[in-house]
Amino acid sequence: xxxxxxxxxxxxxxxxxxxxxxxxxxxxxxxxxxxxxATDSALQFLQSLIFLNNPKKQKYTAFDKYIGAIxxxxxxxxxxxxxxxxxxxxx
Length: 91
Prior knowledge:
This protein is an all-alpha fold. The chain is built from four helices and no strands. It has one domain (10-89).
């Protein structure tokens, strides 16, 4: 986690303080959760806009890129049977 400084409106602080009293959660955790959810929603929205504009160019979703997904399909078809025959017939 990285520490940052935020400047919030007084109305936002009042709302967060009310949530803090109701839930007994620390203010910092409430702000982290709210920002995390807002960021996730914004990323999903942007991903949908990108997909609508370029439906064929997107190979992976934003989540796939986030978790580091890779394409494991081979580029050319492998003939494993032939390779095994080569090994045993080389004697």
